[in-house]
Structures are given as structure tokens and as C-alpha cells.
Design brief:
Number of helices: 3
Shape: flat
Oligomer: single chain
Strand order of the largest sheet: 1-2
Radius of gyration: 19 Å
Distance between the termini: 54 Å
Number of strands: 2
Largest sheet: 2 strands, antiparallel
Helix content: 55-70%
Order of helices and strands: EEHHH
Structural class: mainly alpha
Length: 92
């Protein structure tokens, strides 16, 4: 996929689609990357919506609350890792 210079939104490129995927499993998987991707898609959706039938406010609110929930779950996961390590550690 290539990035359009004007919008920053990825465009489909058939030549790039047939290339092997990046082998780095950490590419774009951080919470910040996922949040940025979500917001980019949401902004593109708002910009390209039909003016005669705009996005329902409840739909946008639901999407934002889902983003917040996923972000909170990631934070909780990060904070729980030390606790899980302590529980798994052998006690003397």
C-alpha cells in the first residue's frame, strides 16, 4: 500500500499487495499505533461521508467509546503483567 501525499490515507497498490508481509510482529501493534490508525480512519470516514446522510452522532460516540475501552484494556494489561509475574514466581 502507498500513502497519498495529500490525505495520509493508504491507497491500495496491487504490486505491493503481492509482496511478503513485514516479518516484524511489533510493527503497528502498539496501543498508540492502533489509536492513531483508528483516528485516521474515523477522520477519513467523517470527511468522506455523504452530506445528505451524515454519520449518526450515536455511531460516532459508540466508536469513540470502543476506542477508549480498548485503550483502557491495554493499560490494564500492562499494569497486570508485574502482578502475574509475581504470582508465577516460585516462592521459597
Amino acid at each position: 500500500m502507498t500513502t497519498s501525499g495529500m490525505s495520509g490515507i493508504r491507497m491500495y497498490d496491487p504490486a505491493a499487495a503481492n509482496k511478503p508481509k513485514d516479518t516484524n510482529p511489533n510493527t503497528g501493534t502498539s496501543a498508540a499505533d492502533q489509536t492513531q490508525n483508528f483516528l485516521t480512519l474515523l477522520i477519513a470516514q467523517i470527511k468522506n461521508q455523504d452530506p445528505m446522510s451524515p454519520m449518526d452522532a450515536s455511531t460516532m460516540t459508540a466508536q469513540m467509546s470502543q476506542l477508549n475501552m480498548v485503550s483502557s484494556m491495554g493499560t490494564m494489561n500492562t499494569s497486570m503483567k508485574p502482578c502475574c509475574r509475581r504470582c508465577k514466581a516460585p516462592t521459597l
